[in-house]
């Protein structure tokens, strides 16, 4: 199983989601699940996460300081089983570059995790510390649910065309 968290800049929401997923999966003994993150925009490629995102994650015991931003690419749809998008615009932008037949691998993170139907992770970039805390609460709730589900099913590849 390979999971890719996707947002716009890959410096706030998706690296926080990647960190939360990695922490929850490892705590559940699911180290065979691969995690990564990417942005639909490439402006911050090569950069570390936003310092506020790093500080927020660190406050919850998760180190995301070593992550580096990169832009989403079409081949991510080949490699990953699921592309977990923070908001609807990310979902639209991601699906736009999907190879034929693979667009449905891109889903909304909170929806797919079972946290909130059609729920979006709001962009904290122009917000303050409390906005980053809300982001963490949302992505970590999703990460917990996902880890429990994968732990229950032990599914190694969940996305297959019939
Ligand atoms: P993210 O937040 O998509 O959660 O990483 C953003 C980061 C940077 C920008 C927008 C959103 N930006 O416009 O530079």
From TrEMBL:
A Pfam family assignment: LMWPc
Domain Phosphotyrosine protein phosphatase I residues, every copy: 1-149
Source domain of life: Bacteria
A molecular function GO annotation: protein tyrosine phosphatase activity
Signal peptide location: none
Keywords from the UniProt entry: Hydrolase, Protein phosphatase
Active-site feature positions: 7 (nucleophile), 13 (nucleophile), 123 (proton donor)
EC number from the UniProt entry: 3.1.3.48
InterPro entries from the UniProt entry: LMW_PTPase (IPR050438), Ptyr_pPase (IPR023485), Ptyr_pPase_sf (IPR036196), Tyr_phospatase_low_mol_wt (IPR017867)
The keyword tRNA-binding appears for this protein: no
Recorded family membership: Belongs to the low molecular weight phosphotyrosine protein phosphatase family.
PANTHER family: LOW MOLECULAR WEIGHT PHOSPHOTYROSINE PROTEIN PHOSPHATASE (PTHR11717:SF7), LOW MOLECULAR WEIGHT PROTEIN TYROSINE PHOSPHATASE (PTHR11717)
Protein name: protein-tyrosine-phosphatase
């Amino acid at each position: 199983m390979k999971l890719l968290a996707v947002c716009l800049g890959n410096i706030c929401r998706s690296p926080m989601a990647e960190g939360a997923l990695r922490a929850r999966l490892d705590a559940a003994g699911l180290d065979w699940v691969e995690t990564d993150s990417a942005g639909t925009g490439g402006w911050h490629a090569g950069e570390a996460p936003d310092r506020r995102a790093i500080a927020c994650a660190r406050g919850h015991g998760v180190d995301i300081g070593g992550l580096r931003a990169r832009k989403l690419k079409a081949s991510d749809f080949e490699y990953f089983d699921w592309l977990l998008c923070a908001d609807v615009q990310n979902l639209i932008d991601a699906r736009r570059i999907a190879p034929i037949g693979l667009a449905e691998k891109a889903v909304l993170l909170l929806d797919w995790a079972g946290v909130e139907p059609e729920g979006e992770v709001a962009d904290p970039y122009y917000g303050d510390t409390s906005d980053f805390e809300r982001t963490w609460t949302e992505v970590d709730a999703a990460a917990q649910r996902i880890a429990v589900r994968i732990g229950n099913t032990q599914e190694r590849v969940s996305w297959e065309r019939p």
